[in-house]
Task: structure prediction
Amino acid sequence: MTALAVLTTALLTASVALIFFYAPVDADGLNQKIFYFHVPIALTSYACFGWGALKAFVHLWKRREGADLESYVAIHQGVIFGALTLLTGSIWAKVRWGHWWTWGDEQLVLFLVLFLFYCAYFMLRFSVEPGPRRARLSAVYALFGVALIPVSFLAIRLANDFIHPTVFTRHGAQMTHTMFAAFCVSWAALLALAHVMYRVELLGKRIDANLRDLRESLTAA
Amino acid sequence: MRRYAADVAVLARKDLTLELRARDTLPAMLLFVVSTLVVFHFALPKHSSDLAAKGLLWVAIVFTALVGLTRAFVAEREQRLIDGLLLAPCDRSAIWLAKSASVLAFLGIAELVALPAYAAFFSAIGWSTVVAVLLADIGIVAVGTLLAAVAAVSRTRELLLPLLFLPLAIPVVVGGVGASVVDDPGRYLAFLCLYDAVFAIISWASFEYVVTE
Result:
C-alpha cells in the first residue's frame, strides 16, 4: 500500500509537470489545462461506479459478504470524483462560456443526474438497518445505476434537440501527441489516486467493523 | 408459464379488491392530479407557450405516479401482508408484476381524467402524447414498484421513495416531453420503449432480493 501511495504521488507530480510544462498551450489559452483534470476525473468516476456495480453484482450472485462493503466504498469514491467533475466542469464553463452552469454540456448534465442518483444511494443506505438486507437493497440500487448511465446519456443527447440546440464541441482541433500523452498520464495518476483512496477507506471500514465485533464480544463476556 | 400468469392475476385481483373496498389510493391520485393542473395554471404566466404547459403535464404525471407508488406497499407493511405473500408458493417476481399491474391500472385511470382535464385547461393533445403517456406509464410503474418495495423496508419510507425514484424518472420525462413537443416523435417513442424494456427486466430480476428477509 505504501509503495502504491508513493507511486501515486509520483504520477500526480509527473502529470502536473507534463500538463503545465510539456503539453502545448492551445488556442483556448491556459484555461484549457483544466481539461487534463476534468476529463480524467470524470472517467475515473465512471470507473468507480462501474467497479461498485460489479461488486454489487458479485454480492448478489455469489453471495459474498465482503463485496457489499467494497461496492459501497467504490461508489463513495465515485461520488467524490463525481463532485469534483461537477466542480471542474463548472469552472471550465464559467471561463469558456461565461456561465457557471451550461445545460449544453452533455457530460456535465449526465454527472448531475448520476450525482443525484448516487446521493439517493447513500440516503437509502443510511435509512436501513445494517445487515444482509441492507446489503442486498444497496446492491440492487447500485445495479440500477449502471443501467442508468447509458440510458441517461442517450436521454440527454435526445433532450438537447428540443432544449438546447447548440452543441458545444470540446476541442476545436484534435489532440496532438503531446497533449494526448499528458492526458493519459493524468488519467493514470487519478486512477491510481482513486485506487489508493479506495484501499484506505476499505481498510478503515474493516478495522471499524472488527473493533465493533471485538467490543461486542467483550461486553457479552 | 400459465401457472405464473394465474399467480399474477390472483395477486393483482387482490390489490384491486383491496382498493375497491378501502378506496384510499385512487381518489387521492385523481384529486392530486387535478389540483396539480390547477396549480400549474396559476404557475404559468399569461402568455407562456403551450410547450411549457406540455412539460408541466409530464411533471403532473410523474408526481401523480409517486402518490400512487407511495401507497403501493402500505398494506404489505402495516398489516404484515408481505410475510403471507412470501410464504405463498409462487415466484417472487409475480408479486412485483401483479403490484405493477395494479399501480398501472390506478395510474391509467388517473390519466383518463388528467388528459381530458389538461386538454380542457390548457391545449389539445395529439396522439403522440397519448402513446408516450402509455409507454412512460409502463417504465414508471416498473421502476417505481421495485423502489416502493425498497423504500417500504427503510426507516424513512415515504420520504425515501421520491429521492430514489426521481433521478431514474428523468429519462422518462425526456422521452415524454420530446414526444409531445416535436413534429417527428418516433425517436422519443423508441427511446421510451428501450427504457421500459431495460428497467422492466432489471426490476423483474431483482425484486426477489428486495423482499427476502
